[in-house]
Design goal:
113 residues, alpha+beta, 3 helices, 33% helix
Amino acid sequence: MNQEVIDFIEALKESWQVELSTSLREVVHQAIPDVQERIQYKKPHFLKNGKYAAAISTSKDAVSFVIFNTTELTLPEGAFVGPPERKTLKLRKGDTFDSTQLVSLVAQASASL
């Protein structure tokens, strides 16, 4: 656990963004037990073997969760957007996500890193 990432999440203005970001961070830690965390480009990035596995970013009305290395993944229809090599799940206030499914997707995507 990286203190800069903890500070980033705790500093978010909206409580729902703190909750979603904390849950997404837990997903990454379940999927990649030895994950490395750091703040890069002003947002939390999660690395496996020095390569990007996931990232969390926030805007005024959303929390975005990016999974890298997704070219070989089969993703749920309509949930993710972006180019083949990285997909983004955009969550807004009141949205939920399937944590078990997300852990599985992150684990699959990062398996070859």
